[in-house]
Fold this sequence. Notes:
Number of strands: 8
Active site: 142, 170
Family: Belongs to the DapA family.
Number of helices: 13
Pfam families: DHDPS
Shape: globular
Subunit structure: Homotetramer; dimer of dimers.
Protein name: 4-hydroxy-tetrahydrodipicolinate synthase
Amino acid sequence: MTTTRKPPAPFGRTLCAMITPFTAVGALDLDGARSLAARLVAEGCDGLVLNGTTGESPTTTDTEKAELIAAVRDAVGAGVSLVAGAGSADTRHTVELTLAAEKAGADGVLLVTPYYSRPPQEAVEAHFRQVADASGLPVMLYDIPGRTGTRIEPETMIRLAEHPRIVAVKDCSYDFLGTQKVLAHTELAYYAGCDEHVLALYAVGAAGCVSTVANAVPGHVAAILDAFDAGDTARARELQLRATPLIEAMMDAGLPGTVTAKALLARLGLPAGPVRAPLLSAGPEAADGLLTRYEALVAA
């Protein structure tokens, strides 16, 4: 059965995959997180994704993850959706992180496909169902096979859509046909997880985006979707293409998005701090290049 109705946006429309600010010595900077979250919301984001890859989840402790959720909830209030990354390579640990996120005040959890062990599709499905059964939080699946080594195949996604708490997908699959197939056959709310796909995926029925570039330009990302919603597709296209140089510099220049986002935010005088090892902070030349692209975008 094919559906033509656009699914609702359960976590808002313009979400930022927020970096996790650290102090100069690498400790969790909760004051910085509160300040950054408030700015992102004030400038156009109606939801935030915390403790994701951009938030350096591989190198933050379970305690730090919970503290970050609680601090950001305090900063932005109850009207902003907070989705907490809770995925891991271990189903039991993923359940623990999900329950901790629920207790800390998250509105939903982002669950990445278990990585490294490369489970078959039957095991992937069982993993997500077990975690979704363990708490009352709605779930956003995170399909990013380039990092995990395992795809959530469209057929698996369609079966998972039957679970009442599996409601959304952050899509970094780079399989536009597969994505359209799931959109056509389920009520799952898709969110573009790759900034270059924000407009393209929205145009075929996505609920919104989870943007790394929004750490620096939340208002611009929101404006792309605003223009499309207003029926001004030419303006939406213009805004998407205008952002392309910054998207390329942040997401396709040989450095992880966490590194480039923190480097640019630091240049803008915003909370960021260093990245944690094994990542290395961007050098001055890369940071200068990011700032140049940013300034060109906001001046246009």
